[in-house]
Amino acid sequence: MPIYEYRCEKCGKQHEHLQKLSDEPIAQCPSCGSADYSKMLTCAGFQLKGSGWYESDFKNGSKPAAAHACGTGACGGCG
Q: Is 7 helix (H, G, I), strand (E, B) or coil?
């Protein structure tokens, strides 16, 4: 479940809430009760590191064949 950050425009407090993607946005500030409580746009809380799944995680251990510039591989000169 993602963690969303909200900010109250009335009291200025910020809170994090653990919510399902299908949950409705929280409409009331838990600190002051104001309805001026809105979801903030924040950075993702994860990082992708390493060589990448697309290069190293094939089930059979082999990499896909490289594509030829001609698009067919039949030219004999591109590659």
A: strand
Secondary structure letter of residue 77 according to DSSP? S
Specify whether the CB–CB gap between 58 and 50 falls below 8 A: no
58: Cβ contacts below 8 Å, ≥ 6 apart: 64
Supply 35's token pair.
């309805």
Residue 50 buriedness (CB in 10 A; 0-12 / 13-18 / 19+): exposed
- Residue numbers of the chain with a pLDDT score lower than 70: 45-48, 50-79
Report pTM: 0.54
